[in-house]
Amino acid sequence: METNQTQRNAETLAALQELIDIVAKLRSPDGGCPWDLAQTPQTLTPYVIEEAYEVVDAINSGDKDAIAEELGDLLLQVVLQSQIAGEYEQFSLKEVAEGISQKLIRRHPHVFGDVSVQSIDQVRQNWEEIKAAEKGEPSPDSQTLSHKLGGYARKLPPLIATMKISQKAAAVGFEWENIDGVWDKFNEELTEFKQALEHETPERQQAELGDLLFSLLQLARWNNLDPEAALQGTNQRFIQRLQKMEAFAKRPLSDYTLEELETLWQQAKVQLAGEQ
């Protein structure tokens, strides 16, 4: 049994080394790929985000082959970022792996040390306290609310960050008394957004759009709705209806008038509703 595990570990390391060598070749000025050579950590950032979301989508699908493929795409981003950093003598994949290994050991003293825990909540609390100490920050219990919320705003996708920020603010009492107040705020922000579109600069319009979206997400929170799941569902329904429209159409959609497209849209909605 131990021999089999040792062999699998060796095969895994060999496969990882092959990936490292391939990425190094792609980045080589001598015969490498022009596209890969042109990339920087900043230009690759959108791909890191995209690949992470594709991993989540694959996991949700339950397709093991898709999960393995998308994890590979995400791993490529880790290796590629490390390769570029190594070229500038900043760090390498070795430091990345060592860093996360050491972090896991430090933050699991109940596994690698002599600390005892009685619950998952205690594990989480220890993790946060150790994390704060590592970063030279106050313990989570003594951090200001604005400090905690600032971390969400910097590190999380906007929709998730907004929900986290509003939940934490509500937990300390910064909250409406009832949902009528939330609706009033939403309608207020909608009015201000309309006024900005008519009379204000693009900067003010964008700011008011942000305020409107923030208030809309408060309505979602009050009704225990997941805005990310809601928007994802809308995207999927839009695409499904578009597919039906294309199936109904006898020519490219761009050749249809707006009125004709609306008719195809309604037909698609009716057929999809009948299939559910």
List the defining traits of the structure above.
mainly alpha, 276 residues, 78% helix, Helix Hairpins, extended, single chain
- What fold name stands as the CATH topology of the domain at 2-107? Helix Hairpins
In angstroms, what separates the terminal alpha carbons?
Answer: 50 Å
Biggest sheet record: none
Overall structural class, as computed from helix and strand content, comes to: mainly alpha
**Do you know the CATH architecture of the domain at 2-107?**
Orthogonal Bundle
The first-level CATH class name of the domain at 2-107? Mainly Alpha
Helix content: over 70%
Assign the CATH superfamily of the domain at 2-107: MazG-like
Describe the oligomeric state of these chains in a short phrase: single chain
Name the shape in a single word: extended
Q: Helix count?
A: 13
